Amino acid sequence: MTARKPAPIQKLDESVINRIAAGEIINRPSNALKELIENSLDAGATSITISVKDGGIKLLQIQDNGHGIRTEDLPLVCERFTTSKLKVYEDLSTIQTYGFRGEALASISHVSHLSITTKQAESDCAYKANYADGKLVPAKPGGSSDPEPCAGNNGTVITAEDLFYNILSRKSALKNTRDEYNRIFEVASRYAIHNSGVAFTCRKMGTPKADLSTQQGASTISNIRQIFGGKIGGSLVEIKHEDADLDISFSGHVSSAAHEMHKSVFLLFINHRLVDNTPIKRAVESLYSSILPKASRPFVYLDLRIKPENVDVNVHPTKREVRFLKEDRITSAIVECMHSKLVSTNSSRSFAVQS
Ligand code: ADP
Ligand code: MG
User: Fold this and answer.
1) Which pTM does this prediction carry?
2) Measuring from atom 12 of ligand 1, which residue has the nearest CA?
3) What superkingdom does the record give (predicted)?
4) pLDDT tens, residue by residue, 11-32
5) Which of 77, 96, 120 to mutate to test the pocket of ligand 1 (most atoms within 8 A of CB)?
């Protein structure tokens, strides 16, 4: 190979930086939705309604009844690294909110046409604002970009349209709108199960019947039954455990060893965040494969709480993973608790049959 001269190093243009960063955080409609649901929950919403067109690519809208956004914050809200949740770095170790980086709305505004309508309870009217690339823009060319007063309910409606209109490679990779809708439904229904204090609705725009509709205050188990069907709902055993030594507690609903499913379902929340954790998932699956008939798979919903100081939530752009201390011991504690619960449930069942 002939040696070539290095190209000069140049700083990327701000808009290029922002679009690249946005593409890392928002890689498909369902993770835009995850960020938006988390914002609604952070705002104290008890009702969240999701409407979707073409798998969320044409339109993704989420309405909540949370505390709204201060009118004076509307010019800032979609800029990168603007947040009402974190002030100094140290706050991260005790953070109670889902959000902390102030990147979600900014990212969505860099890859879609975004609008926000919001009303605080004490305000006489709502305000609507439109955004592109982090900044306020006019609703129509030539108009004013200032937020406009309008009618609206308490809370916030966020609408993202034409997702990835400016990242054509990403857009063309997302052709299967049904698959994207299924992912949206999955995110919404998992948050619905974990947040039984919040009513969740999810529907395709223009269809009269919602695909997901949970009531505020319905029990976790009745939400699981509604979403995954009565057969699973009827076969679940409850687990609950506290470990002072490890500074953790967990609870959940898992399918009994007697129940057979063909596809495994694994819902893991760590400190209320929906996350992937391969070691825990593998350990739980191998526990089940040792007790279930071949080809049968478990249903597991696990709500794990770890002292916030022991968890690092800032390891992945989509926050899909978290790291925590004593992972091996915590994994073993979960597996042991499940094992003894499943064994005792099974033996009490067989005892009941024998007697
Ligand atoms: P983060 O959640 O990390 O703060 P976001 O970009 O997701 O960053 O949101 C920026 C800010 O916008 C939040 O800190 C919050 O103040 C406000 N916000 C976003 N969505 C909502 C909502 N649904 N209700 C009230 N405030 C919101
Ligand atoms: Mg957020």
Assistant:
1) 0.93
2) 77
3) Eukaryota
4) 999 888 998 889 888 999 999 9
5) 77
Q: What ligand has the least distance to the C-alpha of 77?
A: 1
ipTM above 0.85, yes or no: yes
User: 228 in a domain, yes or no?
Assistant: no
Q: Is 94 in the same domain as 179?
A: yes
Pocket test for ligand 1, best of 26, 40, 42 (most atoms within 8 A of CB): 42
114 Cβ closer than 6 Å to some ligand 1 atom: no
| pLDDT of 354 over the 50 cut | no
- Same structural domain, 46 and 83: yes
Residues 6+ apart with CB under 8 A from 291: 257, 342, 343, 346
Residue 124 has what DSSP assignment?
S
Residue nearest to atom 20 of ligand 1 (CA): 39
Total domains present in the chain: 2
Please state the atom number of ligand 1 nearest to the C-alpha of residue 86. Answer: 4
Q: Which of 119, 111, 59 is nearest to 80 (CA)?
A: 111
Alpha-carbon span 163 to 149, nearest angstrom: 26
The CATH number that applies at residue 305 is 3.30.230.10
- Is 223 among the domain residues? no
Per DSSP bridges, beta strands 126-132 and 135-137 are antiparallel
- Is the shortest distance between the CB of 29 and ligand 1 below 6 Å? no
DSSP assignment of 68-94 = ---GGGTTTTTSTT--SS--SGGGGGG
Domain span holding position 294:
233-349
